[in-house]
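#struct-help
A.M.: can someone run this one for me? Single chain, 422 residues.
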Amino acid sequence: MSERRLRVAVVGGGMFFKEVIGSTLMDFERYGIAPYLGDIGQGRLARDLADIAIEFVAIGTHSPKRGTAGRICEWYREGVPDASVQPYYGEKVWEEIIVEEAPDVLVVATPDDLHHPPIIAALSHGIDVITEKPLCLTLEQAEEIISAARVAERIVSCDMHKRYDPMNVKLFRDLVPRMGDVNYVRAVLEEPLEVSTEVFKWAARSNPFSYVGCHWTDVVHHYLGVEPLSVHATGQKRLLANWVDPETGEPSPIDTYDSMQVKVTYEGGMEALYVNAWVNPPDFEGPVNQEIKVFCTRGSAFMDQQDRGLRYCIAGEGSRTTNPFFNGLTPAYEPFDEMKGYGKDSLTAGFSAILRRRFFDADLDELASEYPTAASQRSTVALVDAAARVADRNHKYTMAGQGSPVTAYLGDGGIEIRDPLA
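D.P.: on it. Structure tokens below:
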């Protein structure tokens, strides 16, 4: 048994836990991280990291009445029979986990608006962090996290898996550099209705741009190296704001946007339009609708989720499109299939950086280019924060018949709301 071990705890057991986070940890605990490093271009590190054991020690969720953490432990032991993972529950469950388990890594998969508290708590105890996107919802929180990570000399990796989508890698590393200057980007990501009405009970505390638009902003910022200068945002509140519980027939309004359109001007004049929603009807053929177009001075490129997905039709189930590039399974001889895909690759990158920092004292600045750092998320969080504020003002004015005149200026590093009707 390896003497070098990395103890991992998770807070939050939501939608993608089993399909992505849990399955990734299961593979890491069974086989180590080495077999998966080549998928992110780090095969050179496999020998150095091969003997480090990764152990999932705790899962924390909100309410013991739902029993989510306990069920996750049972499921996990089906794949790792000798696993020592323990369930925890509570309003601030990370606090008990930190004291009782003293993990080396805390994976934060809480609701969007609850990323900041466990991240700061972990860093204050010298614990590395891997967090789901977005990093947080306000620029003030982002700057606090970035500063705390720097002071603690610990890693905060954000699960921005669309960086690792092979289609995006091909598009931005190979094609776009040959197309001249980028004039504009149009990016769409629309989630199903069940996300905002069933899966997430906290939808009213976030919005579709914060939840999924951040994926595309991260891709654009990461690969094109651009900084946002100004933001115009609008949104629609028709369906969710008037939601009726389908089981009881009683009004059950969800005060958030059905859809949002966020137009960003970047330094140098490039424009981007981010179009997001989370009310796609269940009849839609795919789990999500996503596409991106990059228009340049010497060419353009367009990628559509459905055009590269696997389409099928089954009697009684309808037609569907699935995306095995995100979280497919690799058939294994014995005894379990292994997860593969860019959903896992992003987590692998974060864990690789943490292992090198903890066991080889790797320099933080040298590691920064190899995973989605907290610092790299500052501009995305600035857009998330600014877009929410601008959209709220514009929605109020639009409903009053006054148009949508509000913008935000980001050029000085902060957020300046420019409202000519204020």
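A.M.: thanks! The first strand starts at residue 5 and ends at 11.
D.P.: also worth noting: The CA atoms of residues 151 and 212 lie 30 Å apart.
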